[in-house]
Structure formats: structure tokens, C-alpha cells
Amino acid sequence: MIEIVEDIAETARWVAIHRAIESERPDALFRDPYARALAGERGAEIERSLPRGSVAHLSTAVRTCLFDDFILGAIERDGIETVLNLAAGLDMRPFRLPLPATLRWIEVDLPQTIAYKEKRLSGERPRCVFERVALDLAVPAARRALFERVDRETRGPVLAVTEGLLIYLTAEQVAGLAQDLARPSFRFWVTDLSSPAQLRQLQDSWGGGVGQQARFQFSPAEGPQFFAAFGWQPREFRSTWEEGHRLQREGWRSRVLRIVARLSAERRELFRTFSGTLLLAHSAAPTPTDHRPLPLT
Length: 297
Prior knowledge:
This protein is an alpha/beta fold and 297 residues long.
């Protein structure tokens, strides 16, 4: 397959076109009025060129909803005062979600992504206190300096967000990020997580169409427990497979797997943990008494 997604920065346009497609449905799960303009013709070209685009759109729609729910829930339930969105890409939550005006939202991404976004969004106003930081998160010293500044400037709890980032990193890089995020005010972290089974499927479906810089890598065999060694305890995991069925955003393969899952509890668990969205709490974070986490593997 010819490389269609040349580098990791281009994956942001791929995701943006999926959000645009969902937003334009009459029964849209969310509305992102900025997505199509941000995706541009390049995003539409990537969508047309990669196989199984409709499946990717469905899973992106589900993931977007789950992140929306986790972020809004943490703000309401845990008193989050700062959201630190790492590798934010073309995300527009500070502009489209019903956020408290006093909330501080910091989004971080590569300089070229930040420049592109600012050019396209000239004149748009966020719904909260908002800051963009142009920074390469792959440089440990640079991200540590940022995390130290945010920790120093923040009184209340911080929620870190990594949507669509970890899968492009090695296990060592994720471990380094988890260690660097373990700071006094950084209490919660929401991320998506892939299983080894999903990684194999992604590599088979799209691996040949993405460049070396955007190849899929991280899928820990131990699942959410990977993060426990760094003080991050899994609080809640929501399955993309289950949530896709609930939200009526599942492809024909998921429907077939639903039939197969009836034959075996082991198979059902495999499909349930195929991929999902995970809320982590640092070991120092309090556990609210009214929180009822979903089962974790």
C-alpha cells in the first residue's frame, strides 16, 4: 500500500474529517462545527484513500463521545480546575463543550499543528480560560518543564488528556510520560487504550498506508494495569465495542462479533477489552464515594 498518512501530524486531519462526518449526521452524537474546515481537503483525501474509512469514522465518533463524557464528568465530580490536553491535534472541546468559564484549558502540540490551527481559527473564542503551547512532547526536558510550570501555577486538581496519542508511542515512551505526569496537582488522566489484538488489526488494515513516524505501537498486554507501576490506578474503563453498540455506532463486523460473543464468556471479554477509553487516578487522588467504576481487566 502507498503511504497515505505521511507523519503523525496528518493523523489530526484524519480524525477531524471523522468528527465532521459525525457532526453532519441528522442523529449526530455531538456537534463539532469546526471539524470540516480544520480537516480541509487533505483530511478528506486521506479518508477517501484509506480502506475501511467508515469503520474508522464510527470508532472515532464513539471515542469522541467517551472523552467528552470523561472530561465533563471529572470537572463536575472531581473539581478539575485545569485540563492539560497533550497532542491536542485539531480538537475543539474548549470551543464546543459547555465548560465553566473559570476552567483553565491548556492544549499542547507540535509547532506546525498549533500554527495551522491558529490560522484556521482566527477570531474564534473559547468558552474557558485557554492557552496553546507549541512543544514537541517527545523531548523529555521540554515536557517536564511544561508540567512543572503547570503544577506550580495550579492550586486545584489537573486532568491530563491524551486522545489518540499513546498508540503511536513505544512502551518506554509511555512509561516516561506516565512518570513525568506524576506530579502533586496532576490527579487524573484520561486516555484511549488498545489491546494487542486491536494493534494487529490496525496494522493489517492501515499499517501499510501510514508512514514510519505514524506507525501503531503501544498496546500493553497487561491492559490498564500497565499504568499502576507509575502510580496511576485504573478507575474506569469503557469499552469501544460495548459503547459502539449502545450509541448505535458499530459496523457489521462488530455485529457479527456480538453473535460470536454469545458462545463464550472468554470471547466476550476479548472483544470488550479490544479497545476503550480509560480514566486513571494518581495514587494520591481521593476516590469519591458515589463513583461506581466499570469492571477492569
